[in-house]
Give the backbone structure.
Amino acid sequence: MGSTLTVDNIVGATTAANVKLPAGSVLQTVHSQTTTSQTTASQTYVDSDLHVTITPKYSSSKILVRASVSLYNVDNASVATATIKRGSTELSGATYGFGYIYTAAAGGHVNQIPMEVLDSPSTTSATTYRVMFSRGFVNVGTAYLSVNGTVSSITAMEIAQ
């Protein structure tokens, strides 16, 4: 026969901050979004105003970063790409992009790009995750983030280990 424990509050021996939650628990979440249109004609990543700062409670925690980025490219055979960086470090597996060839009558194409990476920053210091974007590897075009009021967002969640 199983047991049931019912409580209204869990309080640590000295403070609530000392309560250790089980592995896999979400300890905190931070979120940011923008509808401000940003552009670049750069082939290297440029900063966007889409970022979050999280201060992990434990250095062993993992940070799950999810972003949904509205990307648009405007020139023939152009490409738009985005990546997630922690500080100046590009996170492995966090680069996303698309190419789109359009006709002038089509006027380009907006894509909502889902991005996700699980990071191990190994720190309890404030850590900033940001979306960077570029026009990619081609020599033509302009990349837009959040064009015409479309929403781009980023969320970081601390996961107990």
Remarks:
- The mean pLDDT is 84.
- The beta strands are 26-34, 38-40, 46-54, 62-73, 78-86, 89-100, 109-119, 127-134, 143-145, 152-159.
- Residues 79 and 98 are 6 Å apart (CA to CA).
- The chain has no helices and ten strands.
